[in-house]
Amino acid sequence: MRPCKARKQRTSFSFQTLEKLNAYFEKDQFPSGYEFSRIADELHLEKRVVRIWFCNKRQALRKSKQ
């Protein structure tokens, strides 16, 4: 049997953080790696969390257009 891999706890965003993320998304839906790092530093989040938020937001946008 394989040992269970611990999952990361789900990130919860404050209202202000979501407002800023949405504002960045309106400006550019596909930011560069550098921009992900800059946004993550500004919002005190991990770069990975910001990148995944953008991926999920683009996916939700595609689903809503169908």
From TrEMBL:
<dbReference type="GO" id="GO:0005634">
    <property type="term" value="C:nucleus"/>
</dbReference>
<keyword id="KW-0539">Nucleus</keyword>
<feature type="DNA-binding region" description="Homeobox">
    <location>
        <begin position="6"/>
        <end position="65"/>
    </location>
</feature>
<keyword id="KW-0238">DNA-binding</keyword>
<dbReference type="GO" id="GO:0000981">
    <property type="term" value="F:DNA-binding transcription factor activity, RNA polymerase II-specific"/>
</dbReference>
<dbReference type="InterPro" id="IPR050255">
    <property type="entry name" value="POU_domain_TF"/>
</dbReference>
<dbReference type="InterPro" id="IPR001356">
    <property type="entry name" value="HD"/>
</dbReference>
<dbReference type="InterPro" id="IPR013847">
    <property type="entry name" value="POU"/>
</dbReference>
<feature type="domain" description="Homeobox">
    <location>
        <begin position="4"/>
        <end position="64"/>
    </location>
</feature>
<keyword id="KW-0371">Homeobox</keyword>
<dbReference type="Pfam" id="PF00046">
    <property type="entry name" value="Homeodomain"/>
</dbReference>
<dbReference type="InterPro" id="IPR009057">
    <property type="entry name" value="Homeodomain-like_sf"/>
</dbReference>
<dbReference type="InterPro" id="IPR017970">
    <property type="entry name" value="Homeobox_CS"/>
</dbReference>
<dbReference type="GO" id="GO:0000978">
    <property type="term" value="F:RNA polymerase II cis-regulatory region sequence-specific DNA binding"/>
</dbReference>
<protein>
    <recommendedName>
        <fullName>Homeobox domain-containing protein</fullName>
    </recommendedName>
</protein>
